[in-house]
């Protein structure tokens, strides 16, 4: 069976379906995918590439409309034989006319990549501290006790027991006011956003997003044809005056730990935001993606807990606090949207694993979740402090740290005259991966000094030390 693998880039202007369509078209033109080949099923390819089925379907429809593939009833999509041979294009790509014949082209090997010595990738977690023995024991118990029910899909809204545990946890830890009936559990924040957008039914109505902000949310809005209104940030978060002057019908925010810059939305702005939503019949999507990890000061209650008008849609995830691979996220809907969801529920299937949901429910019920969370707070607090100390020791005041005191990443500002791309390249030459923040912008200001994102959750103190030392060598 044909497998299609490619890199999909969120920072490109082209949406995923265009990138996928162009990749397959080029593979067909070059002859690397032969006539008569059956393309992977939509569901299989969406799972393989970790993208939505709608994205794959849109790419396939474009290929059908342009005559590269055809749909055969009850069989699938098959590549058609092209009237023109495009394979010669592969030999002369980027070749200037008259410079050399195709026979004279010498294949050159790419330069060897440096050995990766430290990867400051965001979103990684400390697997060494996870209680695998406890998790596996509970999972095994679930498999034995619920053998018959595991043949079923489960509740599309998420298992009732897990939603009950979540409601209690969110009330105590985040000040979220909700009943289990208001919670929907699913496989990832993007999947939750897809479902939410379908419920809101506001296609092609403007949605305000923080600029810079989480590009995973932007990709969902873009795929569903929601025009985005970029709202600039001030030192204390989203610019409320700019938002109130916009025509946005919906706003997506990260008020407790702005992504990627880490500021916390103060109470006076939170009240203004809630007033804006209540007075203009708007909704606020509050993404509380890593609120568990705050290293200084008191915990910041969720915006949802202040909401008296039912205008806040609260979202959270276990990807940062538990295991990314179990793919469990959730959202809390206001009462006004629950009825809409109930109307659609009969036609929906659960997206999160039944086994994982039931395991997590018991993990929380037996108190393991609280123990694990307390431990991880201490683990990440120590790593966070160590990273800041290493930056100070090696760089002094030559770099500025942005967004400290919470979360699993920091941002550093390097104002030495070099560009963002040059700093990233120099780091890679030393075997260190740091990540640009420019992809998180819609209206990127090239005059701003370069700001780079450093994730630290999955790195040891030795790796953090080595990584910062190598960065100093790379940027000296």
TrEMBL record:
It comes from the Bacteria. InterPro entries: Aminotransferase_I/II_large, HTH_trans_reg/aminotransferase, PyrdxlP-dep_Trfase, PyrdxlP-dep_Trfase_major, Tscrpt_reg_HTH_GntR, WH-like_DNA-bd_sf, WH_DNA-bd_sf. This is GntR family transcriptional regulator. Residues 14-82 form the HTH gntR-type domain. Its cofactor is pyridoxal 5'-phosphate. GO terms for molecular function: DNA binding; DNA-binding transcription factor activity; pyridoxal phosphate binding; transaminase activity. In the C-terminal section; belongs to the class-I pyridoxal-phosphate-dependent aminotransferase family. Keywords: Aminotransferase, DNA-binding, Pyridoxal phosphate, Transcription, Transcription regulation, Transferase.
């Amino acid at each position: 069976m044909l497998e299609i693998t490619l890199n999909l880039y969120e920072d490109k202007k082209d949406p995923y379906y265009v990138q996928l369509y162009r990749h397959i078209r080029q593979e067909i033109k070059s002859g690397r995918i032969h006539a008569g080949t059956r393309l992977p099923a939509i569901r299989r390819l969406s799972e393989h590439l970790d993208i939505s089925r709608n994205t794959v379907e849109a790419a396939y429809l474009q290929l059908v409309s342009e005559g590269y593939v055809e749909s055969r009833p009850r069989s699938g999509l098959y590549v058609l034989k092209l009237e023109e041979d495009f394979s010669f294009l592969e030999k002369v790509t980027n070749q200037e006319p008259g410079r050399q014949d195709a026979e004279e082209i010498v294949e050159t090997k790419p330069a060897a990549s440096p050995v990766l010595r430290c990867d400051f990738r965001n979103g990684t977690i400390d697997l060494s501290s996870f209680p695998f023995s406890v998790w596996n024991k509970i999972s095994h118990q679930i498999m034995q006790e619920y053998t018959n029910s595991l043949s079923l899909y489960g509740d599309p809204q998420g298992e009732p027991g897990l939603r009950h545990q979540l409601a209690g946890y969110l009330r105590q830890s985040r000040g979220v006011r909700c009943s289990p009936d208001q919670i929907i559990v699913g496989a990832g924040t993007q999947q939750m956003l897809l479902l939410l957008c379908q419920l809101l039914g506001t296609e092609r109505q403007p949605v305000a997003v923080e600029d810079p902000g989480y590009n995973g949310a932007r990709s969902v809005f873009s795929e569903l044809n929601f025009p985005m209104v970029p709202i600039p940030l001030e030192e204390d978060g989203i610019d409320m005056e700019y938002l109130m002057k916009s025509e946005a019908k919906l706003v997506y925010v990260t008020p407790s730990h702005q992504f990627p810059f880490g500021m916390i939305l103060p109470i006076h702005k939170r009240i203004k935001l809630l007033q804006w939503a209540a007075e203009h019949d708007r909704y606020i999507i509050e993404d509380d993606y890593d609120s568990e990890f705050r290293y200084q000061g008191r915990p910041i209650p969720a915006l949802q807990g202040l909401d008296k008008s039912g205008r806040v849609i609260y979202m959270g995830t276990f990807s940062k606090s538990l295991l990314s691979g179990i793919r469990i996220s959730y959202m809390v809907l206001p009462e006004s949207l629950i009825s809409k969801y109930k109307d659609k529920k009969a036609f929906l299937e659960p997206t999160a694993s039944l086994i994982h949901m039931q395991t997590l429910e018991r993990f929380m019920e037996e108190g393991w979740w609280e123990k694990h969370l307390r431990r991880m707070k201490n683990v990440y607090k120590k790593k966070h402090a160590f990273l800041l100390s290493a930056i100070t020791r090696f760089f002094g005041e030559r770099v500025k740290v942005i967004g400290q005191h919470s979360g699993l990443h920091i941002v550093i500002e390097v104002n030495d005259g070099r560009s963002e791309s040059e700093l990233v390249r120099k780091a890679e030459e030393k075997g260190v991966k740091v990540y640009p923040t420019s992809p998180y912008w819609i209206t990127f200001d090239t005059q701003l000094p370069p700001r780079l994102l450093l994730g630290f959750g999955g790195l040891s103190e030795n790796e953090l030390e080595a990584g910062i030392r190598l960065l100093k060598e790379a940027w000296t």
